């Protein structure tokens, strides 16, 4: 009977080993699926982020175009442009002063093209630029 018990235990161990191997294989498959799902989720999030950035850039472009249309296509002699040229801060600084001081060369060029005065002085008698 002792031999029979030993054989029975050996069969049970083989069955348990086979069941454990099947469970391990199933767990590895589930883990691989979870890793793949995580990678797919990260890729989807990256695509979403990229699309959101593109949308934001498009919205900014639309806002700039709308602002340009409101200004009549940019500086160039319209009533609004002339009002901008006449603006002055409390210290007497004009838009040209601000543009020069902050290094906005494109704005300086637009202001000059629109007729900004190059001899404009603020309350400290500083010129609008180094000319």
From TrEMBL:
SMART domains cross-referenced by the UniProt entry: ANK (SM00248)
Lineage: Eukaryota, Viridiplantae, Chlorophyta, core chlorophytes, Chlorophyceae
Annotated ANK repeat ranges: 91-123
Record protein name field: Uncharacterized protein
Domain of life: Eukaryota
Matching InterPro entries: Ankyrin_rpt, Ankyrin_rpt-contain_sf
Swiss-Prot/TrEMBL keywords: ANK repeat
Presence of the UniProt keyword Transcription regulation in the record: no
């Amino acid at each position: 009977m002792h031999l029979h018990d030993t054989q029975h235990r050996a069969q049970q161990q083989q069955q348990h080993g086979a069941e454990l191997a099947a469970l391990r294989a199933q767990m590895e498959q589930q883990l691989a699926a979870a890793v793949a799902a995580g990678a797919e989720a990260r890729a989807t999030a990256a695509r979403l982020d990229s699309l959101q950035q593109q949308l934001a850039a498009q919205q900014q472009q639309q806002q700039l175009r709308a602002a340009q249309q409101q200004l009549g296509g940019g500086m160039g002699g319209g009533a609004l442009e002339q009002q901008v040229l006449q603006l002055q801060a409390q210290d007497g600084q004009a838009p040209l002063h601000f543009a020069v001081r902050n290094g906005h060369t494109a704005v300086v060029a637009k202001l000059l093209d629109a007729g900004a005065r190059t001899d404009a002085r603020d309350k400290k008698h500083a010129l609008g630029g180094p000319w």
